[in-house]
Amino acid sequence: MKKILIIIPAYNEEENIGLLLNGMSVMGIKEFMDVLVIDDGSLDHTAQIAEDSGFKVIRLIFNMGYGAALQTAYKYAAANDYEYLLQIDADGQHDLSNIKTVCERLGCFGSEKGGHPDIVIGSRFLEGSKSFHISAMKKCAISCFRWIIRRVTGQSLTDPTSGLQGLNRRAFSFYSRYNNFDLKYPDLNMIVQMLLLGFKIEEVPAVMCERTAGESMHSSWLKAGKYMILMLLGTWNAYVRCKTGSRT
């Protein structure tokens, strides 16, 4: 059995996911790692395209949210004894070259010396990274999140909203348990929680490409405003729970 699982949460990504999965097939990724698509109640042919491409798919019966799709995969990984998990977006923004970079820092290949982090985040802002244009609204949010992380945890991260992440078994097993993971918007709040609980998080340079089709979950000012409010409330909740020890 392969020890590395790549998870791809997807919602209405029929225009993008076929190209992503075809790229994985061409690279021969399935020879070394298992790949799981979590279809979050898509209303289009996302799940069918993934299945027709020969990839394993878990279909959620209705749209439960990005975090719920991720936790479904964490539960699957924990139940099936994987040692490492990589998560990438279905929209094609995460170049497949990032897989090797994240795996090496996470220690998946076993030949790298030194201690390894529990979570590796692919960052658009480190030397050696490549990215597309980011809106002023998103830059403002990222700057705010960076400040909160430094203020609350004393540590610095450059790209706290990146969905490109690698997790070891300790991290994804923790996320898989009840009440340990935000089922809607798991970003800043989860980073603060994990740092306060003693999990080690590091970043690596990442190659990001612009979405060519479909719509982002933060595609309007209204959605972005809602996201910011919920994220700040969720981060405060995570901070209080960690500091008071009120966890289940």
UniProtKB/TrEMBL annotation:
<dbReference type="InterPro" id="IPR001173">
    <property type="entry name" value="Glyco_trans_2-like"/>
</dbReference>
<feature type="domain" description="Glycosyltransferase 2-like">
    <location>
        <begin position="6"/>
        <end position="172"/>
    </location>
</feature>
<dbReference type="Pfam" id="PF00535">
    <property type="entry name" value="Glycos_transf_2"/>
</dbReference>
<keyword id="KW-0808">Transferase</keyword>
<dbReference type="InterPro" id="IPR050256">
    <property type="entry name" value="Glycosyltransferase_2"/>
</dbReference>
<protein>
    <submittedName>
        <fullName>Glycosyltransferase, group 2 family protein</fullName>
        <ecNumber>2.4.-.-</ecNumber>
    </submittedName>
</protein>
<dbReference type="GO" id="GO:0016757">
    <property type="term" value="F:glycosyltransferase activity"/>
</dbReference>
<keyword id="KW-0328">Glycosyltransferase</keyword>
<dbReference type="InterPro" id="IPR029044">
    <property type="entry name" value="Nucleotide-diphossugar_trans"/>
</dbReference>
